[in-house]
Amino acid sequence: MTIRRATAEDVPAIVAMLADDELGALRESPADLAPYERAFAAIDASGHEVLVVAEQDGAVVGTLQLTVLHGLSRRGASRAQIEAVRVASTSRGEGLGERLVRWAVEEAAARGCAIVQLTSDKGRADAHRFYRRLGFAQSHEGFKLALS
What's phi and psi for 13, nearest 5 deg? Predict the structure, then answer.
């Protein structure tokens, strides 16, 4: 498996992975890629974000987004936010998700981050076990406010 920066050509495969579960099926629209292509362009242009894919045998089989957040708290520490970790349903259970997350942690450290954080929907019990196994602690209660 190779982890590489995503390209615009990867957007359909990434969106397909985002939509390929119970929660994603309710909120993603793979038939209309225009909003995803706009979002990809913004992410790709940012110096603080990177969207990567895991590629195996020429196929995109995983993805995640890493964003560096600069702040004043913790003595001006930067933190990395991991978002949208997905592995293609046909490739789950092969350790690809672990390799992706470990890559993100190493990349965060290389970018000078003091903390790596992520959120996971309360209904994703398997994902919670996965993140705990990788050393993440459920240390905070998260809140969200939908604006649209």
Answer: -70, -40
How far apart, in whole angstroms, are the C-alpha atoms of residue 91 and residue 16?
A: 14
Q: Distance (Å, rounded) from C-alpha 33 to C-alpha 86?
A: 18
Q: What is the DSSP letter of 64?
A: E
Q: Phi and psi of 38, rounded to 5°?
A: -65, -45
CA–CA separation, 117 and 137 (whole Å):
9
Give the tens place of pLDDT for each residue, 5-31. 999 999 999 999 999 987 887 888 889
The single residue listed with the structure tokens 């996971």 is 120
DSSP H helices in 85-139: 96-110, 125-133
Give the span between the Cα atoms of 124 and 29, in whole angstroms: 21
3-state secondary structure of 141: coil
Q: Do residues 68 and 108 touch, judged by C-beta distance below 8 A? A: yes
**Sheet of strand 78-87: strand arrangement:** 2-5, 49-56, 59-70, 78-87, 113-118
